[in-house]
Amino acid sequence: MLHLFIVTLLYFFGYQKQKDQLRGSRRTSRIVAFYGLTAPPYELDALEPYMSQKTLEIHWGKHHRAYVDNLNKQLANSPLYGLTLDELVKVAYNNGNPLPEFNNAAQVWNHNFFWESMQPDGGYMPAAGLLQQIEKDFGSFPNFREKFITTAMSLFGSGWVWLVLKKEEKKLAVVGASNAVNPLVWGDIPIITLDMWEHSYYLDYRNDRGKYVNAFMDSLVSWQSATARMARAEAFVNLGEPKIPVA
Amino acid sequence: MAVSAALSSTSAAALPFRGGRICPCSLRGPKSRATSSSSSRVTAQLELKAPPYPLDALEPYMSQKTLEFHWGKHHRGYVDNLNKQIAGTDLDGLTLEEIVVKSYNKGSPLPTFNNAAQAWRPVLLLSLMLLYIWNHDFLWTSIKPGGGGKPSGLLLELIERDFGSVDALLSEFKQAALTQFGSGWAWLGYRAGKLVVEKTANAVNPLVSDYTPLLVVDVWEHAYYLDYQNRRPDFVSTFIEKLISWDAVSARLDEAIAASKSA
């Protein structure tokens, strides 16, 4: 009798252990989403004197890093999982009723994109296809440049100014947006961006936003990066037949 | 005229008010000449009044450099721009408060301003600039050298009644300042007999809302970037512990209470 009892007891414990292993949620760690901090594709002093190393150290090393850290903290307790950063931004925007994760997610995305929008020895002008598209959609490159600068200067408070390819209209446009909002939420394709939050320029330019924006246009913007993005964007937006040069 | 006289004779500590709203005395309207009373045209000259202390007086908590830029460039820039914008228009000659309320109009610009010559004028941007100037005047008089410490008297009573303790109030005030995403302000205000903590974005302020401001902290990045860079929490803590002028807050509270009684 006792023997039977002990066997039953042992069987019972074995069964419990099996159930626990199948359930797995208490013992094993939960899977959570996690995003990393992307470094700019150049040294932190590479944009001197237009954007100082000190600015990069704080802007990237403190602000951008904090957005990443805070986002990961939020995601540790969030059902949002398995999304690329682009998707996370759109999901968190929630059609204009942003979830708590939106600000951090969008700011992480925006800053990643910002570092790529610049390069050492940047500025000058785009070439070939991108230049043609700019001339087509803005009239001329100087027109575009002026529009970009004016939009940047008329942003009130914190925000970003963007060159985007609008999917519906199938043309390039300049848009400004407040705080963390970016064109992904409207379904448009960003080509370059400029950070107009004060932390982006205050150490180097103080209140002289005009000088900062001009420096970006003249010496920092990466038209190479913009051209690559434009090429990728054309996979999603039909801009018409390419002009194939005749030999 | 009586209002202008009252405004010009007031010191920074005892701020005059009209109709329940606190009006920093720097925001005089028309600079009318002493001799003329009725005939000569008055032009609006919104003045940039200096903070009631030298620019280095708040060191090391808020550097002279910060004051030089924050007051001398940002604040001054908005006043200059505004004067340029309103010169010769129907806003010319009004006091700052009148312009703010008139042009903001609860968020929908008035048709008065949209006449043919000015139809394109960004009226909402104008009102934002106005609020922004008002906020800065209010900011400089919310702080003082040797500030901080604790409130006392009626203010302390109400704080303890409405928040439980001074620490609880300061904690909520700090939270508001830290959670204001992007540019903005955090306020201690007086609404329907109660003290409240609020936060606003960009240039929005209580003049166009339903509470009377008693205290403000500027959390636009330019307000702290030179001294604290990204460390907004440190800036706000220092602001609370070393800069707040509780005298000014008490004085404003007294006036708000008196105004609500006489209204």
Assembly state: heterodimer
Strand adjacency order, main sheet of chain B: 4-3-5
Strand order of the largest sheet of chain A: 2-1-3
Number of strands of chain B: 5
Strand content of chain A: 5-15%
Strand content of chain B: 5-15%
Report what the structure shows.
Helix content of chain A is 49%, strand content 9%. Chain A contains 9 helices and 3 strands; from the N terminus they run ααααααβββααα. A 3-stranded antiparallel beta sheet of chain A has the order 2-1-3. Chain A is elongated. In chain B, 40% of the residues are buried. Chain B folds into 2 domains: 3-34 and 61-140, Fe,Mn superoxide dismutase (SOD) domain (Helix Hairpins), CATH 1.10.287.990; 153-262, Iron/manganese superoxide dismutase, C-terminal domain (minor pseudopilin epsh fold). Chain B is globular. Chain B is built from 9 helices and 5 strands, in the order H-E-E-H-H-H-H-H-E-E-E-H-H-H. Mean pLDDT of chain B is 78; it is low at 1-42 and 111-121. Chain B has helices at 2-8, 64-86, 96-104, 123-140, 153-163, 166-179, 225-228, 232-243, 246-262; strands at residues 17-18, 21-22, 184-191, 194-201, 212-218. Chain B has 263 residues and is mostly helical. The A-B interface holds A 58, 62-63, 66, 103, 154, 156-159, 178-180, 197-199, 202-203, 206-207 and B 69, 73-74, 77, 125, 128, 181-184, 201-203, 220-222, 225-226, 229-230. Chain A: Residues 1-18 form the signal peptide. Chain A: Belongs to the iron/manganese superoxide dismutase family. Chain A: Residues 128-228 form the Manganese/iron superoxide dismutase C-terminal domain. Chain A: Its main location: plastid.
